[in-house]
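Sample entry (494 residues):
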Amino acid sequence: MILAEMAQWRTAPGTVLTLGPTPESLAAAAEAPVDAAPPSFLQADHLRAYAARQRAGGVHRAWTGVATDLDGPLDRDALARALTRLVTTHEGLRSWFDLTGEVPVRHVVPLADVEHAVVDVQELDVGDGSWAEALQAHLVRTFDAACRPDAWPGFVLGAVERVDGFGLFWGCDHAFTDGASQLMVASELADLYAAEVAEPGGPALVEGALPTPEESGPFGVFAAEERARAATYDASSPEVRAWADLVGSQGGRLPSFPLDLGLERGATAPVHIASYDLLDAQAASRLDARCRALGVRTVSAVFAALAATDHLLADRATYAGVTVLGARDTGPYLRSHGWFCTFAPVLFEVAPHADDLDALLVAAHAGFETGRRTSRMPAHVALAEMLRTGVLGPDGVGSPQLVSYLDVRRFPGAGRPAHERGVHFTGEGRTANASMWVNRDAERLYVGLQHPDTPEAHDAIARYSAVLARVVAALADGSTSLPEVETSRAGHVG
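Predicted structure, serialized as C-alpha cells:
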C-alpha cells in the first residue's frame, strides 16, 4: 500500500459500477434512531467546517479513500454481500449526523437494515482524453457526491469490471474514517469478498481477516469516552502546559512549514501532493539498527531528521511540531473503522546537537515520548484553554503543519495482494501549510507532502525533501554530524 495522490492508481479499463444501499435500506437509514453518543472532537470540527462550506456553496472534499486490484472475474452480488458484512462489523460506518439544528445529532442505522447492491453500471465516456483521466474524473465526482457526513452512507464502494479481474475503489467522508482505517479496508473487503465467493454467508475467511468483537468497539463509545476523559483535565494540567510551551516557542501560533510557500498570511491554495523516497529497505534497516543501539525508536529518527532539516534550511534552533497519532494502538478499538486520531506536541532542542547526531536522536526520542504521553489528553482541551487565555490567538490556529509516521508493514493484510497493490489517497482541497506523512513499507522509507500548489511551494518542497533525504541517509549511514547543504535560496519563514 502506498500513500500518494489518487492518480497513482492505474487500473486497466473496464465497466465501472457503483454499490450502495438498497432503496429499503436507504429508507430505514433516514429514520434511523438517535444515538446518545456525541461527535468526537475531530468530528465536531469537521461537521462545523462542512456546514460552513455548505452554506457558502462550496465543494466539500474532505474525503479519503483507497483503491486496489483483485484477480478473477467479479461476482457483483458477492461484492455487495461483502460490503454489507463490512458495514455491519463497524458501527462507525453505520452512523450519520443530522445537522439541521444547532447541535449535531448522531444516528446509527440498525444492523438489520443494512443491505447493499449494485446501484449503477456505466461505460465511461473517454472523449478526447485518456481512460485514466476519465476514471479519475469519475472518482472525484462519485466521492464528492457520496462522501458526506449528514446522510447515510457517508462512503461509497465501486469496481472496474474486466474479464480477468477488477479494480476496487472506496471513498469515505473523513468524519467516519482515518488513515489506519483506510489501510485496513482494502484487505478486509478482499477477504470478505473471497469468503462470499467461496460460500455465501459462510465462514470461509482468511484467519484474522475480520476483527474480533474485542477489537472493533463502537466509535460512539470511543467518542463518549474521549469527552469524559477531556473533563478530567484543566488549566493546571501539565499536558496543557506542554501545548502552551510549543505555541510559545512559535510566537503564539501553531507550528508551520519552515520555508516560504508563496502565500500571504491567512491565504490558502489548492493542494498538491508530492512524494519523495528517503531510504531503500536496506538503508532503512541500518537506521533501525542505529536506533535500537541507542534505545530509541525509528519514529525518533524521523523527527530528528525533520528537526535537522529545519535547522539547516531555516536556522531553527528548536524543533516544534504537531504529530498525528493513532488512538487505538491497544484495546477495544484496535481494528475499528472511524476517526481514531489524536495529536501531540513535539518539542526539543536541535542546535546543541548539530555535531552529535546520536545526541540529537536521543533528544528527539525524549521530545516525542513526552508528546506521546501528552496525547492522552484530547488536544482540544489545550486549544480551548490557550484561546481563552490568549496564549494562542484566533488567527494562530489556521491549518497547522502536521507530521505523521506510519509503518504500513504492521497493518493486517500487509504482504497480500489487495494491500500491496493498493493506493491510499485523500481529497485534494485547499491548504496553507505543508503537512508531511512519513511512511515505511517493505521496500522503502518515503515522505508524502500535501502542500499549496504555488511555484514557491513546489520549489521549497523539492529543496526541503532533498535536504531531508541527505539527513536521513546520514543517520542511516552512522554519521555523527549533519551534512553540509546549500542554504542561500532557502527563503525561510518563522
